Amino acid sequence: MSSRYVLPVLAAGLLAAGCGTATVEGSSATTTSERPTTVAFDPCDELSAEALQAAGLDPATKKTSVDSPDGQASAWKICRWRPADGQSYAVAVGSSTFTQDDLPSNATVTGFEDVQIGSRAGKTYHEAGSSDLLRCFVSLPAQAGMHNIIVDWDASERETAPETPPCSLAVEKAQQLEPFLPQ
Prior knowledge:
By secondary structure, the protein is α+β, with helices and mostly antiparallel strands. 18% of the residues lie in helices and 34% in strands. The chain contains 4 helices and 9 strands; from the N terminus they run H-E-E-H-H-E-E-E-E-E-E-E-H. The strands form 2 sheets. Strands 3-4-5-9-8-7-6 form a 7-stranded antiparallel β-sheet. A two-stranded antiparallel ribbon has the order 1-2. The longest helix is centred in the first third of the chain and has 12 residues, at 3-14. Mean pLDDT is 81; it is low at 1-32.
């Protein structure tokens, strides 16, 4: 997966808050809050084929985006899948030790809107300063941080995107995947 896809997700968590100092694209953020050092839920291993199929995704297309070697701390675990019907987008599911409350202070993301996904009070948002607007994030609170469902429309197929950013599609995928994500 290209850094274009992963960096905004990482930046959303790392720049907004964390333990110690984090540097992403030359920006440094120092915080004092204590957080778990490792994500409790790994969507790459723990989302079942049934869950992915319920969201119209092809389990065989899994690509790991962010994962640390076993035994090492990781604030994010992110995997992505392509739709089973061959449409021109990918859906990533990320789990993080960071929370939704951390997101608004991050200058790399904007456009926050509240959305109800199952029993959870979610938020949609997109990259700040992006001219493409081909990616939309839906964050869902979790006991040990948050989950993100990210729809990323293929840049080569931007004319086929139903909307930019594709937040309606991201909300739809979040609604389909939410029952399979731990509280």
